[in-house]
Amino acid sequence: MKSWDVIVIGSGAAGFAAAVTACCKGLSVLMLEKAPHFGGTSAISGGAVWINDTDQARAAGKSGAPDEMKTYLHTIIGEANYRPEIVDAFVNAGREALAFLEQEGAVKYSLRPLSPDYYPDEPGAVDVGRALEVVEYDGRELGEHFTTLRSPPPGMLLFGGMMVNRVDIQHFLDMRRSWRSFRHCTKLLLRYGRDRLRHHRGTRLAMGNALIARMAALALRKGLTLELNVTVKSLIEQNGRVTGVEIARDGKSLALYARRGVVLAAGGFAAGRIAPQFRPATQQHYTMSPATNDGAAFQLGLGVDARQGADLPSNFFWAPVSVLRRPDGSEERFPHLVTDRAKPGVIAVNQRGVRFVNESNSYHHFASAMQQQPENAPAICYAMPRR
Ligand SMILES: Cc1cc2nc3c(=O)[nH]c(=O)nc-3n(C[C@H](O)[C@H](O)[C@H](O)COP(=O)(O)OP(=O)(O)OC[C@H]3O[C@@H](n4cnc5c(N)ncnc54)[C@H](O)[C@@H]3O)c2cc1C
């Protein structure tokens, strides 16, 4: 009988946070990923975290009172949906969780010098102190696993293969004006050129890619077994406890057991058929999540009597997304998060030419405003330009 202490389903930031923590505590861990690549949505994300009163914030003199953060969250979430036990756990334990992962070498974060909260005018909001960004990482540390780390789509990379972070982008914009920026960019370009002689893309990883790579590298060094292309068919329940999973491999069913627990960290359901229940039914939806985030994992939970929240007011991480058709007919999606949408010179109008939103609002608010436009003046355009 094959068994581990912990089985983790899903290889995004949630799955790896659980897996690397268990590995650091000396437990044996098996991670099962449905996709051929690991990292999920997390690997193409910004990787930024929003946590109160971290060591980094304290060092910068920006330690935040927990009550201020709770006031902010209370205002944003609203009285009807505010769950104090969940908010308290997040606010009170966030600092310790991040510090643990940092001390073990599973993550590395720095404080963003200026990063206003998404609703900066609401009570409890701050300009600096809660948002932290990932420190870059060398993908070569992953060895052979670098090839199966999920890559952001080429449109999110320079030259289709080079990752840049917030600081690098500023240097590229300044490289003709500043000697320091010129040097920074030259170094990046030379490294990228060298990388491409040996690797399928640049090995200097940033943002969510660096986050996943760093956690994966440590977990793998500590003995994590990572299996890709695995479909979990059901959770095994014995005497009211989940004790394992049944998977399909090479056309056969196989039972795998977990002595301490099974962690369901399979992302959301944005790419699945289940999604239309939770969004305006008339609207087509383009998600940045991998196709494997299809909600099947929800069915696994429901199969052992877990309950799905029915009263969630906001089930999606909304963002405006452009869809590009490549000459070969394939499709690429690009999320308009920070690099363009809110910059001077951009005005967002609906199809009647009426400005409908403050372009600098959070992407979530922006996309909600798009959805709320009247039928005779839509702000969502589905025509895909051919090049
Ligand atoms: C462009 C972009 C930028 C973002 N930036 C940020 C940011 O800076 N900060 C932030 O906090 N959030 C950000 N987000 C949101 C964030 O990426 C997600 O909330 C987060 O990645 C979810 O992590 P996860 O581990 O739950 O899921 P995922 O990272 O999606 O991982 C889930 C994994 O589970 C696998 N899986 C699914 N079903 C099964 C199954 N049945 N069996 C096995 N495996 C399965 C999937 O293939 C996937 O690999 C961003 C999102 C996008 C699209």
Layout of strands and helices, then pairs:
Elements: E1 3-9, H1 13-24, E2 29-32, E3 49-50, H2 55-59, H3 66-77, H4 84-104, E4 109-111, E5 131-134, E6 137-138, H5 166-174, H6 179-198, E7 204-205, H7 207-221, E8 225-227, E9 231-238, E10 241-249, E11 252-264, H8 296-303, E12 321-325, E13 331-335, H9 363-371
Parallel strand pairs: 1-2, 1-11, 2-8
Antiparallel strand pairs: 3-5, 4-5, 6-7, 9-10, 10-11, 12-13
The structure holds flavin-adenine dinucleotide.
Flavin-adenine dinucleotide binds near residues 12, 42, 266 and 288.
Range of strand content: 15-25%
- What fraction, in percent, of the residue positions are helical? 25-40%
- The Cα radius of gyration reads 22 Å
* Shape field: globular
| Low-confidence segments | none
Order of helices and strands: EHEEHHHEEEHHEHEEEEHEEH
How many strands in all?
13
Q: Can you list the strand order of the major beta sheet?
A: 8-2-1-11-10-9
Distance between the termini: 55 Å
Q: List the quaternary state of the chains.
A: single chain
- Average residue-wise pLDDT: 93
Small molecules in complex: flavin-adenine dinucleotide
What's the tally of helices?
9
Report on the biggest sheet: 6 strands, mixed
Helix-and-strand structural type: alpha/beta
Describe, in plain words, how this protein is organized in 3D:
- With 387 residues, the chain is an alpha/beta fold.
- Helix content is 29%, strand content 17%.
- It is built from nine helices and 13 strands.
- It has helices at 13-24, 55-59, 66-77, 84-104, 166-174, 179-198, 207-221, 296-303, 363-371, and strands at residues 3-9, 29-32, 49-50, 109-111, 131-134, 137-138, 204-205, 225-227, 231-238, 241-249, 252-264, 321-325, 331-335.
- The chain has a six-stranded mixed sheet.
- Strand 1, helix 1 and strand 2 form a beta-alpha-beta unit.
- Helix 5 crosses helix 6 (179-198).
- The structure holds flavin-adenine dinucleotide.
- Residues 9-15, 32-35, 40-42, 44-48, 232, 265-267, 288-290, 292-293, 296-297, 317, 335, 337 line the site of flavin-adenine dinucleotide (FAD).
